[in-house]
């Protein structure tokens, strides 16, 4: 008798537990077969009290489980390291590409990431992208107009096109909230670059691209070996703005009011929203601050 069972989504680590229910019947140890990021398990069994090969049956379990392998561009940065840490904790294989490679601090999650030192403009993508199921870009930052267009815009455009060329099914971009700024401020290199990157993701990945648009992100930011506890400001500000949101909503039509009123979001929420994007194929498009928090909650539950 051959049976094909569809299992609910389970992690590879839980398979032995699932099989232990049938332990008295199992004659051969289960074998795992991996193909196209899916895996199947097969083993032979006989009913209790029955001996002899004639009663042996084989059960094949084809589990609809994808083994995820993500590439985080900027995995040692403030947001990137939270994403790597969260992904590792969910059993996702993680590769980071950033110029300085492995961070200087230690941690068990740090050892579980493959750190590839390299610049997104010069990297050999073969070493980075082969076999990946998603690319997550945290590339971005401040500087001169030219630098901001380059790192927020061009670097991401290069990455999106490389991912597309290598057939990577999903691209997740950490962008930024628009703060309802007047258009003359949105024309700065920072926002021009971000918009360029967003439209590249959405046009090359119309059915799977993800753009997260957080405002201020708080957490513990590491700078030159020191930890800056941005959460001391960010967390109370998030709670306060939530408590008064009914009063502040009418102000949101005022230009640039979101510079004061857009709620901060924790770096862990951004990371969990990314994990939700990696694991849920129905999650794609552009996500606001509130939607980032909702997506994070789904993973936290
Ligand atoms: N922090 C916030 O409050 C906030 C709020 C809203 C949106 N965002 C957006 O979120 C993203 C991440 O921000 P963050 O604060 O985490 O930035 P970050 O700490 O400066 O991290 C940037 C990462 O990019 C890497 N990187 C820079 N240039 C690179 C290149 N040419 N090739 C490869 N890697 C490169 C850096 O590592 P190396 O230097 O080693 O290359 C670093 O790992 C940015 O796009 C930012 O605009 C941040």
UniProtKB/TrEMBL annotation:
Q: What are its GO cellular component terms?
A: mitochondrion
In terms of SUPFAM superfamilies, this protein maps to: NAD(P)-binding Rossmann-fold domains
User: GO MF terms on file?
Assistant: protein-containing complex binding
- Domain named NAD(P)-binding: residues: 74-180
Q: Which InterPro entries match?
A: ComplexI_NDUFA9_subunit (IPR051207), NAD(P)-bd_dom (IPR016040), NAD(P)-bd_dom_sf (IPR036291)
Q: Name one Pfam family in it.
A: NAD_binding_10
Name listed for the protein in its UniProt record: Uncharacterized protein At1g32220, chloroplastic
């Amino acid at each position: 008798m051959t049976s094909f069972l569809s299992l609910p989504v389970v992690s590879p680590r839980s398979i032995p537990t699932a099989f232990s229910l049938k332990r008295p019947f199992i004659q051969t140890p289960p074998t795992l077969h991996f193909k196209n990021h899916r895996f199947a398990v097969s083993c032979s069994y006989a009913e209790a009290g029955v001996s002899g090969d004639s009663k042996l049956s084989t059960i094949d379990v084809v589990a609809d489980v994808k083994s995820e392998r993500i590439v985080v561009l900027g995995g040692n940065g403030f947001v990137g390291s939270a994403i790597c840490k969260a992904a590792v904790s969910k059993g996702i294989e993680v590769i980071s590409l950033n110029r300085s490679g492995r961070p200087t601090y230690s941690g068990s999650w740090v050892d579980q990431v493959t750190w590839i030192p390299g610049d997104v403009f010069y990297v050999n993508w073969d070493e980075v992208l082969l076999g990946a199921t998603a690319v997550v870009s945290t590339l971005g930052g401040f500087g001169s107009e030219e630098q901001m267009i380059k790192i927020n815009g061009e670097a991401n455009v290069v990455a999106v096109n490389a991912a597309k060329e290598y057939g990577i099914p999903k691209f997740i971009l950490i962008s930024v909230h628009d703060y309802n700024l007047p258009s003359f401020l949105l024309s700065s290199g920072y926002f021009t670059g971000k918009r360029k990157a967003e439209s590249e993701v959405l046009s090359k990945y119309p059915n799977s691209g993800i753009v997260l648009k957080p405002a201020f992100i708080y957490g513990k930011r590491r700078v030159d070996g020191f930890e800056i506890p941005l959460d001391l400001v960010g967390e109370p500000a998030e709670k306060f703005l939530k408590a008064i949101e009914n009063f502040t909503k009418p102000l949101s039509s005022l230009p640039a009011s979101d510079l004061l009123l857009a709620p901060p979001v924790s770096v862990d929420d951004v990371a969990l929203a990314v994990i939700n994007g990696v694991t849920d194929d129905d999650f794609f498009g552009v996500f606001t601050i509130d939607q980032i928090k909702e997506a994070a909650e789904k993973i936290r539950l």
